[in-house]
Each structure stands twice: as structure tokens, then as C-alpha cells.
Design a protein that fits this description.
Blueprint (H helix, E strand, L loop, with lengths): L3 E5 L2 E5 L6 H16 L12 H5 L3 H15 L7 H4 L3 H11 L11 H10 L5
Antiparallel strand pairs: 1-2
């Protein structure tokens, strides 16, 4: 995968082949949310509920999911916002679909099948 840069003013978030494990991917997502949406990094912890704890709406969550999908060349099937409520869930799901983590146990069977159908690395 080529380097991908998201620019916001003078700030940049760079993603490249340096993402080698789920922890690096998690950190990239936290930095993106912090820098792009101005969320205090102290709130961006594993158990943070995206809408409730971070105060971001469904449209913003969809933007974040879209950016993660484009950046990491993964595809989120329909129903993602029904499966993912917490920051940790978004990160683990993304890491699994990118081939960096085991299948998360919080996903429904039909959603897992849909993920596998569009993300070959999630096998």
C-alpha cells in the first residue's frame, strides 16, 4: 500500500506500510479522530462509546469509518454502525479486516460473513 496522507491545515497524519499490528492501527485511528475532529485525546480510550462519550454523531462516525476504509483498503459492509459502538470495537474490527488481528467476538455471524466476503485478509 502506498503512503496515504490526510491533511488538515498544517497538521498531517501519515499512514504507510509502517502499520504492522493492531496497536499501531488503533493509535492511527485515535490520532485521526483527535486531529480531524478535535476530540480530547484523554477521552479516546478503549471503552469510549463513540456517540455518548465522544459526543460525535452518526454522520461523523460514518466519515471516520470511510476514512479508515480508504486508508487501510478495507471494506465495511452495511450494518457497521449496528455492530460498532465503542472506539475499541472500531479499531479491532478494522484490524481484523486488515489482517492484523483475530476475528472479534462481539460481531454477529451474518456481519462476520459479510466482512469476509469483501475483505480477503479477514479470513
Amino acid at each position: 500500500m502506498d503512503n496515504f496522507i490526510l491533511a488538515r491545515g498544517a497538521q498531517e497524519i501519515t499512514m504507510s506500510d509502517d502499520i504492522k499490528n493492531w496497536m499501531h492501527l488503533f493509535r492511527w485511528i485515535v490520532k485521526h479522530i483527535r486531529d480531524e475532529y478535535g476530540i480530547d485525546e484523554g477521552l479516546l480510550n478503549r471503552t469510549a462509546v463513540l456517540e455518548q462519550d465522544l459526543g460525535i454523531g452518526e454522520e461523523t462516525i460514518e466519515e471516520i469509518v470511510d476514512t479508515v476504509a480508504r486508508t487501510f483498503a478495507i471494506n465495511f459492509p452495511d450494518g457497521t454502525l449496528n455492530e460498532v459502538l465503542k472506539l475499541e470495537e472500531l479499531c479491532l474490527l478494522s484490524a481484523w479486516m486488515h489482517g492484523l488481528y483475530k476475528e472479534p467476538d462481539f460481531l454477529g455471524a451474518a456481519y462476520v460473513d459479510a466482512c469476509r466476503a469483501v475483505n480477503p485478509r479477514s479470513q
